[in-house]
Give the backbone structure.
Amino acid sequence: MAGNAVVVHDVNMLETFGGALQEKRDELENLYVSLSAETLQQETNWQDPQYAYLKEQVTSYCEICKGQLNELDDAISYISSLVAKLRDM
């Protein structure tokens, strides 16, 4: 995250940004979950050998996305902690 120093000019704006980041993170998670579910539902629909490849690609992509969601969680947690410390000052 941040280095030794962070300059915050407006705590309310920082808190608003953290909330917006959380909303977008949740939207992304819902999209990844939906993509995985829709792909799995096609398993009995397709009789094409390429389905296995597609399923593997989508599953791999969604696993990578989980890592990105974890990074967003860390950023949101950092912002939340920073806002709390600034409000305590």
The mean pLDDT is 88. The chain is about 80% helix and 0% strand. The two ends are 21 Å apart (CA to CA). Residues 50-88 form the longest helix (39 residues).
